[in-house]
Amino acid sequence: MKTMILDCVDEEYANAAKYVDWPAIAKKLKEYPGLINTSRESGYTVLHHVAHAGLPVKVAQFLVELGAWRSVMNYKDEKPIDVAIRRRHKHLIEVLKPKLYYQIPPQDLLKIQLVFTEFIKKLCPDETKILQLGVLFETKLPQANIFLPKCGGTVKINFVSVNPPFDYVVNGFPCLRVYPNVNDKYNVYHIYTSGYEKAKIIPSPFTD
After folding, report:
1. Does any domain span residue 1?
2. Which residue range forms the structural domain that includes residue 51?
């Protein structure tokens, strides 16, 4: 699993994405595929920029196959498909439709997102980009490895026991499992809708 970088740490790539310089984008992603979902303050990922510019379907499809998230939102709460619709690029609508393998009650996802954000901010106060947890459901295994550039660490994340019908509980509660490798290297946390706690038994990453 490649490590994803959410915050803009490569200005060359960010500029290539902004101006949809496709040769430069492709070259950079070949070297550093973890940059694919990077964005600046606007929240525009490369897939948002492709949707805005109306590039060919094959470009968007290539990015999706490389791991570009279709359900990630920018600062206007727009997914790439919303940008394509707003810009009237009808040829991109089908390829940009998010495909979600799992569903979670929106109120539960929002609560877990808020607790997760609080957790990351406590772990790394200067971090500006927080993973939007809903994007995890674009993969059959809802998990990710995220680099935190402000504190030079990583955090592995997965929803626990996600199998249809959606069973994502620990002790009867919806649960996100987090493996920080920053200052709490040897601790594992369970994040619920109501808060978080250290796991009593440290499980291996991504074994569910």
Report:
1. no
2. 8-96
